[in-house]
Each structure stands twice: as structure tokens, then as C-alpha cells.
Amino acid sequence: MLCKNENNDPAHCLKEGRKVTRCAIDLLRKVREHCDSEFEAHWQCLDRNNQEYRHCRGLERKFNSCVFNALNLEKVIPGSPSNKPPIHLKEKPLYKERPRW
């Protein structure tokens, strides 16, 4: 997006576009290599349940865990305070309002 904002010429962004495409292909290849069964189970659950995540959260957690461990990734939420544990790592997060799910 930044490239397109800098220049309206599409040829100007081809190099960056190729880099993004290679990065995405590499990521998908690594996911298939390390977490193929978890990936298959998760997308099949979504396919069976009309793309509704609420029915597939357990499989999503397994898939996310596999990807984060296999690729040595760490979830960082931009703008979150550095001196407090992130909300996704809290055992019992407190909500200002009760969730409606």
C-alpha cells in the first residue's frame, strides 16, 4: 500500500509485489511442511460450519500452537503495555463488559 501511495505507476511496485508473493508462498510451504494435519482439520471444520469460527476454536488453537512453535513465532499486539502480560496469555482475563458469546 505504501508503494502505491508513493507512485501511481504500477511498474514501480512490481519488485515489492514479487517479494510479498515469495514470502507468502514460503510461509504456506512451511505451514504445510510442519502443521499439515492441523491446517487440514481447521479448514475442513470451517468448510463444514459455513466459515463460522465459533465452531472451530479448538482446532484453531491447535493449528495456531503448531504454527507458532514450528516457525518460532511470538504473538505481539501493537500498542499493548510492555510491563503487563498480553491479554491472550492471561489465565482469567477480566472484561469491562460481559462478552455476548
Automatic annotation (TrEMBL):
Entry keyword annotation includes Hydrolase: no
One BP annotation, GO: mitochondrial electron transport, NADH to ubiquinone
Membrane-crossing residue ranges in chain numbering: none
Cell compartment(s), UniProt: Mitochondrion
Ranges where the CHCH domain occurs: 35-68
Sequence ranges of Basic and acidic residues compositional bias: 88-101
GO cellular component: mitochondrion
Keywords of this entry: Disulfide bond, Electron transport, Mitochondrion, Repeat, Respiratory chain, Transport
Main location: mitochondrion
Name listed for the protein in its UniProt record: CHCH domain-containing protein
Origin species: Gigaspora rosea
